[in-house]
Amino acid sequence: MTDPLDETAARLDTARTRAASMFRALPEEIHALGRLFEAAGHELALVGGPVRDAVLGRSSADLDFTTSARPDDTEAILRTWTRDGAIWDMGRDFGTLGGVRDGVKVEITTYRTESYDPTSRKPQVEYGDTLEGDLSRRDFTVNAMAVRLPSLELVDPFGGLADLANTVLRTPVAPAQSFSDDPLRMMRAVRFVAQLGFRIEDATADAIEALAERITIVSAERVREELVKLMLGAHPRGGLELMTELGLAAHVLPELPALQLEIDEHHHHKDVYQHTLTVLDQAIDLESPAGSGGPCEGPDLVLRLAALMHDVGKPATRRFEEGAWSPSASTRPWARR
Fold this sequence. Notes:
Elements: H1 4-24, H2 28-39, E1 44-47, H3 49-55, E2 64-67, H4 71-82, E3 87-91, E4 96-101, E5 104-110, E6 112-116, E7 123-127, H5 131-135, E8 146-149, E9 154-155, H6 160-165, E10 168-169, H7 175-181, H8 184-196, E11 199-200, H9 202-211, H10 220-231, H11 236-245, H12 249-252, H13 272-285, H14 301-309, H15 314-317, E12 318-321, E13 324-327
């Protein structure tokens, strides 16, 4: 029998090797940027999603960095790096500047610390002093890793590499604090389940269930963005089931848990909730491969939403007659003449 600890160690070694190769393969422009920050006496690190994707063996178009430099110092270095002054200010008040050199775009943010008003997910932001402190404010451990430049040292204070190897989601700080500070992170959790096939660690899932109602303080636009990403993921059913199980769907997509109709003792009607998720799976199976020129190239958001919502009228319209159930004529406008 294979020792689970040996399997985990093997996965970690594979992840480290793959990540190191991906980091070395970063564009030379990025290595040059790291040398400029180092020469100026500042730290620079690739952070978040690009690091996670590299560990997974995926390239990332987004190159997000964090630095000890304050915005004015970052701007001065970027002007040298870009050669032609191609920089932009997308949030100097939050310490974020961007630039491009030979088609390589970067966004760089000064180390930050955040504090939250319980009635809002918008933080009070102050500049931080350490990379580890900056990483602690990230949503999940798998996004709380960084790679120092130009040394390519992997910084992983919260065990994100092991969590990636084990496909598990945890928060860097106590999950109740993390989700209370920014409730949108709860939607991001179920979205990562749908996109990456991860599972949510038990204590983290418990915190989502306890705090699900706080998602209502987040703007509908931000919630919709996460829901769309979930629906376009490789495993949307898993994300939707967790949304329902943990109570998020009751606030975000109430039509979905409403499909969990009570089954009568004679089973005269089907489980509409499970039926709906099965139809979603079947619709995804009908998608053509992306770029194939087929009639319905996947992932197709309209097709998937149509499958998900095709039976949402049943809970409000069902009735029982003579041991069977059917939509009531009074609630079927198409039946009126």
